[in-house]
Amino acid sequence: METRHNNSLPPAIILGGNANAVSIARSLGRAGILVYAINVPEEAVRYSRFTRWISIPRRPGSRSESWANYLLGPESDHLRNAVLLAANDEALELIAQHRPALSAKYRLDISNPAAQLCMLDKLSTYRAAREAGVPTPRFWVADTREDIERFEDELVFPLMLKPLSSHRFWQHFSGRKYILVRRFEDLLATFDAVSSAKIPIFLVEAIPGADDKLCSYYTYIDEDGCHLFDFTKRVIRRYPVNMGLGSYHITDHVPGVKELALKLFRQVGLRGVANVEFKLDSRDSRLKLIECNARFTAVDCLLGSSGIDLPLFVYRRLVGLTQAPPSTYRIGVRLWDPVRDLFAYRQLNQMRLLSFRGWVRSLLHRQTFAFFRWDDPFPALFDSIRLVMLWRKLESSGSAVATTSSEFSGAPQSMQRDAIPLRD
Fold it and tell me: What's the pTM value of the predicted model, to 2 decimals?
């Protein structure tokens, strides 16, 4: 299907991302905007009819360096004045670090680079939250084995080894966001393995409770520090359970989450797209910080289905088109990832936490899909085939994904086990 473009509108470039990149492309492409995508070749956005793929040869150095060289070099001069949007942490960091040079060539969203870099550093985020009076899990900074041994009497288990920089940890440890350990001996062994990779981490208490205790708040903060809309959603299921990405979400009004989110955003001076995730701690009934993102996320299409077209809202601001900010959104809208949620059901069923009937009953609603659209089917086809093939490979090799989160205990051998990759 041929997509018609409005030549009077500047093109857009989506840098990085997976499900969110597909959502951005569809949002802008349907509005008649020419959309380019820069990413690794195996991402589904490459196969969307709404994008023109830009192939960038990998050069010596990091992937982001190759992207920066292209964006700032003469090869991209035909894209001058395009809107440049970050769809993952790597892209956000690239734009923050090269902002003066990039802003001379492209249209960039409003930003406080220092605040964005603070959000990318998970330890800095937790420290800022404490200063703002936003509840967090207990956490400890341990740079050496001796630090961990000194904290032994106050540590609580299960415990997460969480990276300061998620995207670097993600690339090194097969798409994991953190490593969970349940014993002090496992903590020491895992810390040694992570230290050898030279990736800074800190220790974070794992908040007990099911994945449906997770909730998120989204907004956009303008030049004056005013938030322009409110959006909250909850997680129904994740895969892997208690440590993966959401496989099933629902929009809702979650009491208290907006106030805590805005306190954190004001503390760091965040501008532009803003998102924060909390988990309700049943021990004290308080929402506690999980992470914060200053970019589009994997559930962007859920905002769109609920009445908030965030990519188009940001684009229109950047090109000077007048618009009123969204004033409301629909409650009870669901986002379902069929393949990943099937794996989530299988894991929960093996843990005797969810029956087949209960799983099917939870799905008897109108669904939004991150990848599938009738008028743009290939991203969904590509992503499903990739996941199923990887699952079959793991099953045949005897390295199936853990059926309980205890198998992700963090011992060095478990860190080397293959797993379905998590993509934001």
Answer: 0.89
Mean pLDDT, rounded, for 340-355: 95
pLDDT of 423 over the 90 cut: no
Are residues 148 and 40 both part of a single domain? no
Are 230 and 89 found together in one domain? Answer: no
Examine residue 274 and state whether it is found in any structural domain, yes or no: yes
Residues 190 and 306 in one domain: no
Q: Residue 6 — pLDDT band, cuts 50, 70, 90?
A: confident
User: CA 96, CA 116: separation in Å to the nearest integer?
Assistant: 7
Q: With respect to residue 254, please indicate whether it lies within any of the assigned structural domains.
A: yes
d(CA 267, CA 291): 15
On average, the pLDDT of the chain sits at 89
**Domain that includes residue 335, residue range:** 211-376
Provide the percentage of residues in the chain whose pLDDT is more than 90. Answer: 74
CATH assignment of the domain containing 95: 3.40.50.720
- 170 and 283 share one domain: no
CATH of the domain at 150: 3.30.1490
Q: Is residue 327 part of a domain?
A: yes
Task: Give the pLDDT of residue 38.
Answer: 96
Q: From 66, 93, 108, give the residue that closes a domain.
A: 108
Confidence of residue 11 (pLDDT cuts 50, 70, 90): very high
In terms of domains, do 195 and 228 share one? no
Number of compact structural domains in the chain: 3
Q: What is the pLDDT of residues 165-195, one digit of tens each?
A: 776 676 666 657 788 999 999 999 999 888 8
